[in-house]
Amino acid sequence: MTTDIPATAPEKKKTDWVGEAKSIFWLILAVLGFHSFIAKPFYIPSESMMPGLLVGDQLVVSKFTYGWSYVSPSFHVLPHMTGRVWGSLPERGDVVIASPPGKSEDYIKRVIGLPGDRFEVRGGTVIINGVPVKRAAPVMRAIPVDADEPCTDPKYAPFRTDNPNGSVTCALPVVRETLPNGRSYDTLDLGYFPDVDDYPATTIPANHVFLMGDNRDNSADSRVAEVQGGLGGPVPWENLGGRAEFISFSLDGTQSWWNPLSWFGALRGGRAGTSLHPSKAG
């Protein structure tokens, strides 16, 4: 008589927790390295760069364009250091992210003045080396009114219309501005506000740039003192964290971050892929 011998179950392989932890560590390090030295996403939190950028726009920012500095790491963990590694100055008209002196948050603004420029703003007109920057006549343009752009700022009141059907129209005066190098872009001119529309003539120091928001009357930039939340004058080039390249996608504020399905309904159409490089006059 033959007796069957039961097969022995294969021994279950134990999880290598140390190996898993190492894999996760290297993955996190690779992601942080990419964010710090190659490119990172950036969310537009304010209206300071309207009309080109809206609250809710998601951008891609290149981190290597001007070289690297102490603000390059994603979490700004390095102490302040002067200068840049393989550094280069931005081109006039570039949209950049910058960290205010002594702070860790990122602002997004446009480079208007370069080192050595004699810079002035008079009655809302930028004057570089004694020559006023070319400005076209204002053109009224409707901006999208939604949860992220409700058009409720008091400065927009003269341009807001509450329609009988409950909708809101917000048509703002857009002024096309062209810099001395021929690069042009749209700005908003909401009227005369002396705290930002006049800036005394000053010579921009070496390795500094003068930054301004495109929403000229609603931007805490180089014209605004640090105690008022601004950049407090020309910004050292080591405080530049990168150049904004293009819009990856845009949300209107109706999404729930805990419900990814709601993101699709909140997408603003037509904004993905929009380049943030200013056009050049032919």
Task: Give the overall silhouette.
Answer: globular
Low-confidence runs: none
Helix segment tally: 3
Helix percentage range: 10-25%
Give the DSSP E fraction (strand runs of 2 or more residues).
Answer: 25-35%
In the sheet with the most strands, the strands line up as 1-2-16-3-4-14-15
User: What is the averaged pLDDT score?
Assistant: 90
Global structural class: mainly beta
- Determine the N-to-C terminus distance: 99 Å
Strands, total number: 17
Radius of gyration: 25 Å
Largest sheet: 7 strands, antiparallel
Series of secondary-structure elements, N-terminal to C-terminal = HEEEEEEEEEEEEHEEEEHE
Core attributes:
17 strands, single chain, six-stranded antiparallel beta sheet, globular, seven-stranded antiparallel beta sheet, 282 residues, mainly beta
Polypeptide structure, described:
This protein has 282 residues and is mostly beta strands. 11% of the residues lie in helices and 30% in strands. It has helices at residues 17-37, 194-197, 261-266; strands at 39-43, 57-62, 95-98, 107-113, 118-122, 125-128, 131-132, 134-135, 139-143, 160-162, 168-178, 183-188, 199-203, 208-212, 235-236, 240-250, 279-280. It has a seven-stranded antiparallel beta sheet. Strands 8, 9, 10, 11, 12 and 17 form a six-stranded antiparallel beta sheet that branches. Strands 7-6-5-13 form a four-stranded antiparallel beta sheet. Strand 6 and strand 7 (131-132) form a beta hairpin. The chain is globular. The protein starts with 16 loop residues before the first helix and ends with a strand.
